[in-house]
Amino acid sequence: MVQNSFNRFFFKFFPVPKMLSASSFGLDISDESLKFLELIMTKNGFQVGRYGERPIPPGVIESGKIKNPGKMEEILTSLRKEEGVNSVRVSLPEEQVYLFQLRLERAGLRNVKEGIELALEEHIPIQAEDAIFDYDLVKEDAQSLEVQVAAIPKNIIENYLLIFERAQISAQSFELEAQAISRAVIKDGDMETYMIVDFGKKRTGIFIVSNGIVMFTSTLDVGGEILNNVIQKSFNVSLEEAEKMKREYGLERNAKNKEIFAVLLNSVSVLRDEISKHFIYWQTHRDEEGKSNPLIKKIILCGGDSNLIGLSDYISISMKTPVEMANVWINITNTENSIPGMVFKQALSFSTALGLALVDYNN
């Protein structure tokens, strides 16, 4: 797989000692929770060590921005003391990252980073001096370069770094969540084009990865909790019972499940429409030279709520496109010995943390 220069950039910008231990921790932080996972290299291959999830109370993080530093420090300090987590690789909030493609003419171009910096404010709503950015080279010829640029407000990174420092946890690197997920669910060395749909509790991430580079990201305020709320209101049951009904019946169309199917279909169709919109745009869009994007080979589903019965079949049939559940162990050897205590369905919600932990073994 193409090495992610976005991750390398943050590693260089915030230099840290090379890890000496034979394990690596990935830390996936969202507005609602943090998930951590330790990947250990043994003589028999990879094994999963410590892992788990901690809730983050409402208002501590909003759209990726830390609003309550004291509480976040408390949560991280507790993680360090109770789980022995001292060094981590961290995912960046998708909502705060700007991702765009840029063509740079070779004529008069002295330095690629300088060329990007001069054009940065045309593509993002913040000044260049207030942003941290890096790029992946998409393609080049004698006249120009095409680069995929990722940028994030400098203060976002600084705030995260300060919290980790106060909690006495070393942040080894920061990385785009989509890139971490792609490292976990796409076979190392696979340069095909895929759409990844990360269906979580409160939101869904839609990513397009091509040639090992994240080319597109979008975040939707649609998640599994919306399905629970719809079932709760429609059948006048508790949220716990609604969750149970969702898991038990899902999108199976049968006489017993007829009413639940109809209720869920309305919400799931909203997700399907968003996926389809981005899918069609990618497949039909042409660049400045009139060249088409490489075709999406298949859609890969991950995230804790991607387990919904019938979801993959529904999207596949309605979009006439291959859809499959992610295999988050695709780049892990000896899986019989490397996933103790973590079943397949649970592992789907740890794809970001696993992808982050894999960085140490891809460098």
Write a structural description.
- The protein is an alpha/beta fold.
- The chain has helices at residues 5-13, 69-83, 112-119, 154-166, 177-185, 224-235, 239-249, 258-284, 311-319, 335-338, 344-347, 351-357, 359-362; strands at residues 23-29, 33-42, 45-55, 61-62, 65-66, 87-92, 98-105, 131-140, 144-153, 170-176, 193-199, 204-210, 213-220, 298-302, 323-325.
- The strands form four sheets. A five-stranded mixed β-sheet has the order 3-2-1-6-10. Strands 13-12-11-14-15 form a five-stranded mixed β-sheet, with helices on both faces. A three-stranded antiparallel β-sheet has the order 7-9-8.
- It starts with a helix and ends with a helix.
- Fraction of residues in helices? 25-40%
Give the strand line-up of the largest sheet: 3-2-1-6-10
Unreliable runs, pLDDT <50, ≥5 residues?
1-21
Percent of sequence in beta strands: 25-35%
What is the domain tally? Answer: 2
What's the end-to-end separation, in Å?
11 Å
Taking all residues together, what is the mean pLDDT? 87
CATH architecture of the largest domain: 2-Layer Sandwich
CATH superfamily of the largest domain: ATPase, nucleotide binding domain
Helix and strand pattern: HEEEEEHEEHEEHEHEEEHHHEHEHHHH
Structural class: alpha/beta
CATH overall fold name of the largest domain: Nucleotidyltransferase, domain 5
The number of helices is 13
Molecular shape: globular
Query: Major sheet, described briefly?
Result: 5 strands, mixed
Question: Total strand count, please?
Answer: 15
- Calculate Rg over CA atoms: 21 Å
State the CATH class of the largest domain. Alpha Beta
